[in-house]
Amino acid sequence: MLHEICHYDHGPHDETFYDLVDQVKKEGNELLIMAKGNSTVMKSLRPREAAAMAAERRLRADPWCAWLIWSDYCNP
């Protein structure tokens, strides 16, 4: 999901795009770490941010899910 969201900011699959994906993932991981230590952070997230975090948790819980989404995207 983060991959697709990053396309709103930068369209082509180039180095800039993948740098953005890496940056967003890093920031998301930092938010997750903070959220696990402080439930107040979770309550302060906007619905879009909370949904993105939930999607990340689902993808991490089931690695096949991430692979299926990626393979569908790459092979329409």
Automatic annotation (TrEMBL):
Domain of life: Eukaryota
Annotated ranges, domain WLM: 1-60
Source species taxonomy: Eukaryota, Viridiplantae, Streptophyta, Embryophyta, Tracheophyta
GO cellular component: nucleus
GO molecular function annotations of the record: metallopeptidase activity
Name of this protein: WLM domain-containing protein
PROSITE patterns: WLM
GO biological process, any: DNA repair
Pfam families in the record: WLM
